[in-house]
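The instructor's notes for this session suggest beginning with a concrete chain rather than abstract definitions. Hand out the sequence below and ask the class to guess, before any prediction is shown, which regions might be ordered.
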Amino acid sequence: MVPWRYAVILDAGSSGTRVHVYRWPDSAAAREAGRRKVLKSLPAIKTKSSWSKKIKPGVSSFSKAPENVGADHLKPLLDHALDIVPQDHVADTPIFVLATAGMRLLPDSEQKAILKKVCSHIQETTHFLLPDCDSHVQVIDGKTEGLYGWTATNYLLGSFDAPQLHDHGKDHHTYGFLDMGGASSQIAFAPNATEAQKHADDLTLLRLRKVNGRTAEHKVFVTSWLGFGVHEARNRYVKALLETSGSLDTGKHEDPCLPAGLKMAVDGTMLEADSAVAVNDPYLVGTGKFDQCLLKTYPLLEKDAPCEDEPCLIHGVHVPAIDFDVNHFVGISGFWHTTHEIFASAHKDEAYDHTTYQERVKEFCSLKWSDMQAGVLTSKWGKKVDEKTAYEVCFKASWLINILHDGIGVPRIDIDTMNGPGYNGTKAVSTNEKPEGYLDAFQAVDKIDATEVSWTLGKAVLYSSSQVRPARDDDLPVGFGSNVPGVPDDFQYPGPKLPPIPHLEVIESGNTTTTDDHWHDTLFNGDTPRRIPGVFLFLLIVLIALFFLCGRERRSRIYRRLYLSSHRGGGAYRKRPLFGGKLPFFGHRNTVAYERVLEEGAPDFELDGFASEDDLSPKAARFPSSSSSSSSRSSQGLKYGFDNGSSQSVGLGIGGHAALDRAGLVVRTESREQLVPPALNPTFNGRRSRTSSPVRHKAPKTSGFSND
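After discussion, reveal the predicted structure:
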């Protein structure tokens, strides 16, 4: 069975922290057992929905009391991970705590205080692999988060392992990535060849390694907009609303992005309709006018910000021109929840197009707040939709439409691309169920092949890939950095090297050392000094195994052939076989049967009386069933006799040797009994017995015999 490797990754976001557990086959074992398809793929990472757990709020909420982040926040997440990772794997399982936009908004001093407490708590309460706090517990920038998300998306869609199935034209096979969190939004994509050459300095070089040890490089553009997540966008929207509607401090302010009749405090707290508000406290009252909501959220894109490096999209941030003929974007997180939490469940469609989506949002947001509350109580939009989800979705939807189409420039399928009022883009998109069918300009997803699309998976892909032994010693490392040849100064490694699995340990010079070299590679590849003797040792083991598997009869036949061929032409005298009778798997199979005949007696074999010691001629030994054979032997002058002087055995032999050649088989008896004539043995009753006489007799000399 291929051993597993594990990794624990905590996504410390702005609204909460979620732990993810991932596992994959050990790279050395996978290379040994893998088929061609496996060898040409990235490590096969697996996870389950039950291996993830989220708690609220985020770690950034502990900025004023960082000492409480361990017991009050991390403990249930770490306990959950320890319940999943097998106990004997914990010490070899790396753990990463990667904080995102919520922590980026804090001052550096507060960030460092929280991260220090997070790391010390993990080291003191668990045995997870955490050798370096700076690389394992950190605040990652938006570009890194976006690159991880792009990696996870393309990994799940299969564009890394099977690019031929994702040919988008112009030699392009990867997908673009969009992510919207609470505080920031990210975009990542591989520009077409023309744009990639034009903006080479703006790209990030990503290097991965497949199970066979070969590397694959990708050049990706990644950028992040801090403050353009849905929560931060809402804060900027409310501030602008108060400024444009008169007074920042007093009075009622109408909000077209809230349901009609909903009364809310500026900080987002919902107020009762008849609740009194202090004279100096501003508050919001919803009007439910979605068209006006779209107009008021558009300025938040800051499209008029200065652009120092053309082209720019949002907030004056440079982005290479996007070729939507080959760049097909997949949106996760806020893009998925905003398009599917309410509207997909109500209309049973799983895809997105601009017109259909906007019509559904407008219909929903025109409802009075009391009607929305009634729908929530009856689970009209699903059991997961609560009041907060219901009143927040109108602003989220308007922000998504603006940032997606007016900000990034994703074409409106029915307006910008398809002409004709009867075209249903949602129906057309929903027919694309396979990953190869993600060919629309934009599609929101939550899971691909039952696996949640999360940027943490991208981190796991990079880390597991870095644990694969390279095909050559001079291969470049796995990681990412500036788009320059070799290893740039800002190159980021995924993490520390994992220790080898136990069965790959070797003993050298009395000391135990570890290696991830596989025995197959050690014996047959490279220039190792153990290669030649290793091959001979391997062949010897194979020959011994074949020897025992061929069976006793076959071993005997082979041995006799070799023995006879080596003694052919050597005269009448033949040596006793080297191993015959000594080892149970050499010699002749019939030996035991003949010994039992000689020791226990048989009805077709008897010895006649014996002459005196002085008589040199033996009396007849009879073989009633084979008289002609006996006569033939006698005529050839074969001498039969008994040797009582041997301390080893008493036997019946040929020509003075303790053997009888019968039907071509060598037979000998190992009995120590004296064979005496009936006249000298008063206890003889005509039947042989294993019980010998207490009186020892001197064996008579041998005499000849003849057929009666």
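Then share the key points. Confidence is low (pLDDT under 50) at residues 415-436, 503-531, 570-576, 578-708. Residues 590-708 form one domain.
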